[in-house]
## 1
Amino acid sequence: MSQGAVVIKKIKQAQKELLAWYEKAGRHELPWRNTQDIYRIYLSEIMLQQTQVSRVRDEYYPRFLEKFPTLQSLANASLDDVLAAWSGLGYYSRARNLHKTAYLAQKSLPTDYKELLSLPGIGQYTASAVCSFGYNQSIPVVDTNIARVLKRYFALLHVKDKTVWEYAQKLLNHKDPKNHNLALMDLGSLICLPKNPKCEECPLQQECQGKTEAELYTQTKKKEYESLELFYGICIQNEKIALTPATGNMYKGMLELPAVDPIEEDFLGSFKHSYTKYRLHVKLYHLDSFEKAIWVSTDALHVTPISSLTKKALSTALNKKTM
Ligand code: SF4
C-alpha cells in the first residue's frame, strides 16, 4: 500500500472512531444541538464564546430566548432591552453585534459562509459553526478545544492558526461533517483536557502522535493584565438610583454609576472586579446629588442595561449580596 493510501486509511479509521465515540459519549442533550432553528444555534455560539456551557445552558440561553424567541423579535427590540437581557454575560460588544446582525439579516441568517462572515461579530469560527451545526455543510470548525485535539493528534508544535484549520480540513468527514465537528469539540472538552488528558479513554489514542507529551501542545502565552482604579458615586433619592450613560467603548449603550473625585469622608466601600484584560479596583463614595442623573428605581434594575460591575457596585453600596 502506498504512503498516501496508508494516510487515507488512518484518517478514515479516525473518523469512524470519532463518530462511534460521539454517538455514545457526546453531549447530545445540549439544547442548541436539539434544534434546527439557525437563530438558536447562532445565539448559542455567540454566548458560548466567553461563557461556560453550564451557565449558558441553564441561565442565559433560556432567559434570552424567552425574551427574544426569533431573529425577527431580536431585530425589532431596542438595544437597551438587548443589553439588559445580556446583563451578566459580559463582553457587551457581543450583544451589540447580535442586535446589529439580527437587524441586517431580519428573518433568517444567510446560508453562505462568506455572507455570514460579512455580518457584525461573525468571524471564521462562528461562520463555520453556523454552516456546520446549522446547515450541515461540509466545512471544518476549529475552536480552542478542537485546536488542542488536532495539535496533539497531528503533533503540531508552534504552528499558526491557519495550519490548524488546514489539518481540520484534512480530518473532516465529508459524509457527516456536523457530527464529526461536534465529536471533536466534545472530545476536547471531555477527554483531551488541557492538563492530564484522559488518553486511555480517547478514541484517537492509537494514532495520536502527541499523546506522550500532550501538555507540550497546550502551552499558551501568559495573559497580561492591566490594573485600573475607578471611583463611583452612589446617589439614592426616593428609592431611585442616579445613573448616567456609560462612557468609552467597554460598556457602550449601557448605564453606569457617575464617576466622582474621591473624598475620603464620603467613602462607602470598595471591591475588586475583573473584566477582559482589566483588573479593576473600584471605590464607592456617597454622593448628595447628581444633576444629569437618569433616575432608575431599584425595582427596575433587572430590566436596565447595566453591567455586572455596576450591579456589584450597587450591591456593595446597599450592603446586599445579590441584586
Ligand atoms: S490520545 Fe490523548 S492527547 Fe491524543 S487526542 Fe486523545 S486525549 Fe488527546
## 2
Amino acid sequence: MDQFISDFLVGKNFQQLATNFVPNYTTLVSKVGGIISPENLDRLQGALKEAKLKDVADIIEELLMAAENAPLDVAVIGESGTGKSSFISALRGLSYEEEGSVSVGVVETTMKKTPYRHPKYPNVTFWDLPGTGTPNFHPHEYLEMVEFATYDFFIIISSCRFSLNDALLAQNIKEIGKKFYFVRTKVDNDLYNEEKSKPTSFKRERVLQRIRDNCLANLSHIGVPEPCIFLVSNFDLDDFDFPILEETLLKELPFHKRYTFVLLLPNLSDASIEMKRAFLKEMIWLDALKSSALSFIPFMACFNGFDLPQQEKCLNLYQSHFGLDENSVKEIAKKLGMSVEKIKSFTKSLNFWLLVKDESIVARAMKCVECYCSVNGGPPSTAFQFLKTYFLHLKFINTVADDAKILLHKTLESISLRRCQRDGSDCLTE
Ligand SMILES: Nc1nc2c(ncn2[C@@H]2O[C@H](COP(=O)(O)OP(=O)(O)OP(=O)(O)O)[C@@H](O)[C@H]2O)c(=O)[nH]1
Ligand SMILES: [Mg+2]
C-alpha cells in the first residue's frame, strides 16, 4: 500500500498505476467489499490510465463525500412485544434505562412510527413502526401509511412464529424493490427454558437449529420462499446470528451507504471491529490518493500541514468510532472493576503523545519521500508532512482497533467469569 502511494507521488507511469490500482484496492477493503462500486472503480481506473488527475481527484472526492454523508433509515417492524424497541436500543448502543433510549415495556408501547436518531451518527435513523398484528391488516395500505420509500431496508421481528401478516408484508416489501430481513428475537429465553425443562438432554446447538428449522418451515408454509432468518438475543448482541446479520446487511447495502452502517455497528465482536478497521483504512487511503493526484496540478492546495491539535482530534474521533472515547473507557473500567489508569497500562491508543512520537512513522514517511524527491527534486517538506500524517492516521486506526479487541476480550472474560461464579460452576471445565 505504501508502495502504491509512493509510486503515485512519483507519478511516472500512470498506465502501470491504473493496472495496479484495482489489485491494491481489493487487498485493502473489508471482506464484504468497500465503498466503491465496480462502475466507479472502472471510472477511476480509466481516469488514471489517461493521467487525468483532476478527474481522479474529483471522482475520489465525490465518493468520499457520498460515503461520509449517506443517510441511513432502518425500519423495524413486528407484532407487539416481540422486541422491536429493545433491538433498536441495542443497535444504538444504549441500555434500556438510558436517556434517549426507545421506550420498552411489557404493555403495548409502540403505537405510531417513531424515529430514533443514532446518538453518535445523526445521519442514521431507526424507525420503530407500529405493530402489524391487527386481523384486518392490509400490507399495501400499511406500507403506504409508514411511507415505505423512505427506508433503506426493513427488519421484520418476531419472538415466536412469524405471522401471516409478516409474510404478506415481506411479499409487498419485495414487490416495491426493497430488502427485508427476518429476525427471531429472545433466543436466550428459549435456551434458558429448554435447559431448565430438560437439563440432562439439553444441547444448545440442537435447540438453536430447531428454532431455525421451525422459523423456516413456518415462513415457507405462509408463502415466503427461501427466507433469510437471523436468531438474536437483544441482551447479547455479540452472540447467535447478530454478527452474520451485520455482515449480510453491510454486503447488501448500496456501496455509498456501507461506511455509515459500519460505523454504527456496536464493537461487540472481532468481526465488526475488523470491518470498521478496513473501512476507515480505505477512507484514508483514498483521501491520500486524492491529495497525491492534486499534487500534480499547479496552484492546487493538496497537502495539509502537520497540525498537532488536528491530529489529536483525529485520534479522538477514531477512539469514539471504536468505543474507546473517555466516557466509554470509564464505563469499561467500571465493568472490569479496574481503574482507568490500569486500562491505560495495557493499551496503547489512549496515549496521544506515545503514538505521535513513534519513530517508525517518520522512517516510513522518509522512505516514501526519498523516492519522490529523487524524481521531483526540490524540498521534500510538504510531501513528507503529508505522508507523515497519512502513516500516523494509519497507526491511530490500527492501534485503536487492536485495543478495542483487547478490551472486548477482557470484558467477555469478565462476564463469563461472573456467570460461572453466579452459577457455582467450575469455569475451567467449560
Ligand atoms: N429475554 C429476552 N427478552 C427480550 C428480548 N427482546 C426484548 N425482550 C423483552 O421483551 C419485552 C418487550 O420488548 P419491547 O422491546 O418493548 O418490544 P416491542 O416490540 O417494542 O413492543 P411494543 O412497543 O409494545 O410493540 C421487554 O420486557 C423486553 O425486555 C430478547 O432478545 N430476549
Ligand atoms: Mg416498542
